[in-house]
Design brief:
This protein has helices at about 15-25, 40-50, 70-75, 80-90, 110-120, 170-180, 200-205, 240-245, 265-275, 280-285, 290-300, 315-325, 380-395, and strands at about 1-10, 30, 50-55, 60-65, 95, 100-105, 125, 130-135, 140-145, 150-155, 185-190, 195, 210-220, 225-230, 235, 255, 325-330, 330-335, 340-345, 365, 375. By secondary structure, the chain is of the alpha+beta class. The chain has 2 domains: about 1-190 and about 340-395, FAD/NAD(P)-binding domain (3-Layer(bba) Sandwich); about 195-335, Beta Barrel (Elongation Factor Tu (Ef-tu), domain 3), CATH 2.40.30. Strands 1, 2, 7, 8, 9, 10 and 20 form a 7-stranded mixed beta sheet that branches. α3 (about 70-75) crosses α13 (about 380-395). It starts with a strand and ends with a helix.
């Protein structure tokens, strides 16, 4: 039976940050990971280059039932603090777009940074560890695995959410929360592609791999102007992934294919200036040719060979409305299999925003994705992991 000051369940981004922070304070720390490797999400993120934070960090970039909850952790450990840690280890990085910071070389640089910090601070890491039971008695947490039993004064749940189960995502953290009488919000997949089952599915499949800059708006008027990607199953790309966090089953989304243009004014102008031309020909100067051809099949098949001079203004206004406000209803999402994060989770009403400690159970902490805090795409979820992990690590 081994004794520690704190046991951290989950060696992902939040757990690693918590471990090094606590160990640097002289705490004896055990980090338990059920997978064969630590930091699997770190390794696969950002196309293998890890979008580790964002220069423009605001509470508005996070979804939570209590929108103020994330403010304390984000202010205690900022993006600049993590950037300083990255620079301490001489990791080359660059800004891609919209403040997103990526490693120049590989996500392995970030993971190796944590491994070095854990080694220096004396963190004990156990991988391939299956927890068979967790109890609280005599003011101590008892964690039982298949091969050992550990005791600690505090327990940190950093086991992540349900997203990407192939990388270790599971509902274990929510089970622990409920065991210790912590309420949880219903969870769902977020930052995830949309799927379609109606007549749009073959159209999107035909365009698979094509990307176009758009403005995607949800039913509650949340908009994202970024790239949209057509897939064999539906729609993906940054704009869609962002919108998915705000979307509920049965709702429409609106896609503006010409976010920089008033489509009605554009088409009327084209009618006057390019009267003998076809609509698809002129639209191909503003949209990818393959997309224009598919839209023609969908929206104006009977008028495909009519020159613009023969279109009346009402007809053009109808096409323009669709170009600036294409209403689509996804059948669903690709689910946790490809979702980058999980929305919902441990109710923050029963956590201290200053320390991440439970207000129900002394010495119990919840950090990272398991908590009902979900960031936008672009490094925000990693920053929440670093910040919440740091705050807990300073208080265990």
């Amino acid at each position: 039976m081994s004794r520690y000051d704190s046991i951290i369940i989950g060696a992902g981004a939040a757990g690693l940050m918590c471990a090094i922070t606590a160990a640097q304070r002289g705490k004896k720390i055990l980090l338990l990971e059920r997978s064969n490797k630590i930091g699997k999400k770190i390794l696969m993120s950002g196309g293998g280059r890890c979008n580790f934070t964002n220069l423009f960090m605001q509470p508005e970039n996070f979804l939570c039932q209590n929108p103020h909850f994330c403010k304390s952790a984000l202010s205690q450990y900022t993006q600049w603090d993590f950037i300083a840690l990255v620079e301490k280890h001489n990791i080359a990085y660059h800004e891609k777009t919209l403040g997103q910071l990526f490693c120049d070389d590989s996500s392995k640089d970030i993971l190796n940074m944590f491994l070095a910090e854990c080694k220096e601070a004396g963190v004990t890491i156990e991988t391939n560890t299956t927890i068979t039971g967790t109890t609280y008695r005599d003011n101590r947490y008892h964690v039982i695995t298949e091969t050992n039993q550990y005791i600690s004064a505090s327990l940190v749940v950093a086991s992540g959410g349900l997203s990407i189960p192939s990388l270790g995502g599971s509902g274990y953290g929510y089970q622990l929360a409920k065991q210790f009488e912590h309420p949880c919000y219903e969870t769902r997949a977020a930052l995830v592609p949309f799927t379609f089952s109606d007549h749009h599915k073959p159209l999107f499949a035909e365009l698979s791999g094509l990307s176009v800059n758009t403005d995607v708006t949800t039913i509650n008027n949340i908009s994202f102007r970024e790239a949209l990607l057509f897939t064999h199953r539906g729609l993906s790309g940054p704009a869609i992934l962002q919108a998915s966090s705000y979307w509920q089953s049965g709702e429409d989304i609106a896609i503006n294919l010409l976010p920089n243009d008033n489509a009605e004014e554009l088409l009327i102008k084209l009618k006057h200036n390019q009267a003998k031309s076809l609509l698809r020909t002129q639209l191909s100067h503003h949209l990818p040719k393959a997309l224009t051809q598919q839209l023609e099949t969908l929206w104006w098949p009977k008028s495909a060979e009519r020159p613009l001079a023969e279109w009346n203004n009402k007809e053009l206004k109808d096409i323009a409305r669709k170009l600036n406000n294409w209403a689509l209803r996804p059948a669903g999402t690709e689910g946790y299999r490809t979702a980058e994060v999980t929305i919902g989770g441990v109710n923050t009403d029963h956590l201290s925003s200053q320390t991440m400690e439970s207000t129900i159970h002394k010495g119990l902490y919840f950090i990272g994705e398991v908590v009902d805090v979900t960031g936008h795409l672009g490094g925000f979820n990693f920053q929440w992991a670093w910040s919440s992990g740091y705050v807990a690590g300073m208080n265990v």
